[in-house]
Design a protein that fits this description.
With about 350 residues, the chain is mainly alpha-helical. It is about 55% helix and about 0% strand. The chain has two domains: about 5-25 and about 220-340; about 45-215, no CATH class. It is built from 13 helices and no strands. The two termini are about 20 Å apart.
């Protein structure tokens, strides 16, 4: 139910829908020789495909077929090929999977993945079935020996409509994927863990993880945090508190992902405080809608303090921190007016 306080927030938030730039050094991609006829230099997946080919993840061929669905068998080969030498694969002559023939080209890769516990030892593998986004990410993270269950395990907040339950098997996978800048929400606001991915999708997921592991995704993470802060304001302006909460949670997680790579960088430390501050603004808005004016004042105060901390860590964040404090002050002022006008 809308209160007099919440009805005045729309105009405050509409004025706040401005770009809050986070200055970071650009990471320049270098162009290389075109290896596949259907992945030109103008393709958004060109850097990823060329990198993976150079690393031996992809094999030479005339075409890459970026729009084709990636099968589970293909996923196994892509993940195992850089890990197991050909002579070792040649020794694999049988598998426990009942639907993987001993003569199948992918059998050694699938069995190696099973033995390395990259895939589960269940009776069937479904080699021709397209792999899902979360399924491929789980296989890749496991192969890289990355503890996606333990990393950011204190963070259990909902991230999107389809990634809201921390008990879902794919939640920690998507959480790590966000923190590592492997993935982001789509235009529909979802992370789509069950979507069947294409070969182009695979290349981007793999490449982004490699870049994150090489400490070359800080810019991308801060940019994504900035995008979700913009989403927070848009969702609040549209009175969609749930989506605003999801966006604020994602902004905190991606900022923390950058902090994992650059723990001593003041800009990154400040970005975490900025993200936290916008979470307080969401909580203040939520309190105002429910008529909890004391909650508005408390969370607005916390948001203002987070902005101060961010500014002290990195003065370059003054544009966004000033914006935060303006919103927080306006919210607090409106709450005090509402308190003063309330019947005694």
């Amino acid at each position: 139910m809308q209160t007099p306080f919440s009805s005045r927030l729309s105009s405050l938030l509409a004025a706040a829908l401005v770009a809050c730039a986070v200055p970071v050094a650009a990471f320049a991609q270098t162009a290389g020789m075109v290896s596949y006829t259907d992945v030109p230099e103008t393709s958004p997946v060109f850097p990823a495909v060329e990198y993976l080919k150079a690393k031996g993840v992809l094999t030479p061929a005339a075409a890459f077929h970026p729009s084709d669905k990636l099968t589970r068998a293909q996923a196994a080969k892509i993940i195992i090929a850089p890990l197991v030498r050909p002579e070792e694969l040649a020794k694999v002559t049988a598998t426990t999977f009942t639907d993987v023939a001993p003569t199948a080209w992918y059998m050694p890769y699938v069995e190696a993945a099973r033995q390395l516990k990259i895939i589960d030892s269940v009776p069937t593998f479904n080699p021709d079935k397209p792999v899902t986004k979360a399924g491929f990410m789980k296989m890749l993270l496991t192969a890289k020996k990355l503890d996606y269950n333990g990393a950011f395990s204190d963070f259990t907040a909902p991230l999107a409509t389809d990634t809201a339950n921390k008990s879902d098997w794919f939640y920690p996978v998507m959480r790590y994927g966000l923190a590592a800048s492997m993935t982001a929400v789509g235009q529909d606001g979802n992370l789509s863990p069950s979507r069947e991915i294409t070969r182009a999708d695979m290349a981007l997921l793999y490449y982004r993880l490699e870049m994150y592991m090489a400490d070359r995704r800080t810019q991308a993470l801060l940019s994504q945090a900035e995008t979700d802060i913009g989403n927070v304001l848009q969702m609040l302006d549209a009175k969609n508190i749930q989506q605003a909460e999801y966006a604020s949670n994602r902004s905190i997680l991606t900022a923390r992902g950058a902090l994992t790579s650059r723990p001593n960088e003041a800009l990154v430390q400040g970005a975490v405080k900025v993200a936290k501050g916008f979470q307080f603004l969401v909580l203040a808005y939520k309190a105002g809608v429910s008529g909890d004016l004391d909650g508005v004042l408390k969370n607005a105060k916390d948001a203002y303090a987070s902005a101060d901390k961010a500014k002290s860590l990195s003065p370059g964040l003054s544009v966004v921190t000033t914006q935060m404090q303006t919103i927080a002050k306006n919210m607090a002022d409106e709450a005090r007016k509402a308190q003063a006008a309330a019947p005694k």
